[in-house]
Amino acid sequence: MAKFKDKTINGATYAMGHLEDIVIQVQKGDATFKVLVTYSCHCFTEELKPHHTPDFHYVHKHEKRAFCLVRHGLSHNLPNYIANLLGRPVYLTKQTNFFFIRSNGGNYVVFFALRPARNPRYDAILTVQSAHLRTNFTRKAQPVTFDDLVEAKVKNTPVTPGRKQTIKRS
After folding, report:
1. Among 104, 121, 42, which residue's Cα sits nearest to residue 78?
2. Cα 66 to Cα 142: distance, rounded to the nearest angstrom
3. Whole-angstrom Cα distance, residue 128 to residue 126?
4. d(Cα 147, Cα 138) in Å, to the nearest integer?
5. Which of 15, 25, 59, 107 lies deepest, with the highest CB count within 10 Å?
6. What is the C-alpha to C-alpha distance for residues 18 and 83, in angstroms, rounded to an integer?
7. Residue 74: which residues within 8 A CB-CB, separation 6 or more?
8. Is 170 helix (H, G, I), strand (E, B) or coil?
9. Left, alpha or beta for 77 (phi > 0: left; psi -120 to 50: alpha)?
10. Comparing C-alpha atoms, which of 103, 105, 111 is closest to residue 137?
11. Please, what is the Cα angle at 166 between 47 and 111, to 5 degrees?
12. 48 - beta bridge partners?
């Protein structure tokens, strides 16, 4: 059974299969970590507001939001972005982790949580909490390579990020 329902608006169907859970392998030294990647509906929906007509309403589990054509379009690249994080910097803030991709529409910011897995088939679970274009976000953050973050979470050791640095925006 599909995780997210496809959405039909004005006769056009927007498929959601690209946001099915996947497993990526993270190599760190001699260790290989299996990371289950899951996505939240916030990757393709936005806050429901009065101007959203019923055909844009999207319900997932107990959450009612509005389907967003822009977020949905951008979400097609999320699995590729996640798979290519190996060895690349991600940023830590007090609330969450994130990385961003510069695109011609601005900064595509991807917020995620990473935690050790309870299921023995995986070492960690990465949940993409939200992903959207954003012009205004934190000015400074601490970088850490994705691989180091995964290793620290799996081994339940402190994350050792770099010094806070100014994030250059597009």
Report:
1. 42
2. 32
3. 6
4. 23
5. 107
6. 13
7. 103, 108, 131, 132, 133
8. coil
9. alpha
10. 111
11. 30
12. none
Over residues 117-169, the pLDDT tens digits come to: 999 999 999 999 999 998 777 778 889 999 999 999 999 999 888 888 887 65
- Mean pLDDT value across residues 23-27: 96
**37-93: pLDDT as tens digits:** 999 999 999 999 999 999 999 999 999 999 999 999 999 999 999 999 999 989 887
Tell me if the pTM is above 0.85.
yes
With CA atoms as reference, report the closest residue to 129 among 23, 37, 24: 37
Residue 54 φ/ψ, nearest 5 degrees: -55, -30
b/e 87-101 (16+ beta carbons within 10 angstroms → b) = eebbbbeeeebbbbe
Q: Report yes or no: 44 and 71 within 8 Å, Cβ to Cβ.
A: yes
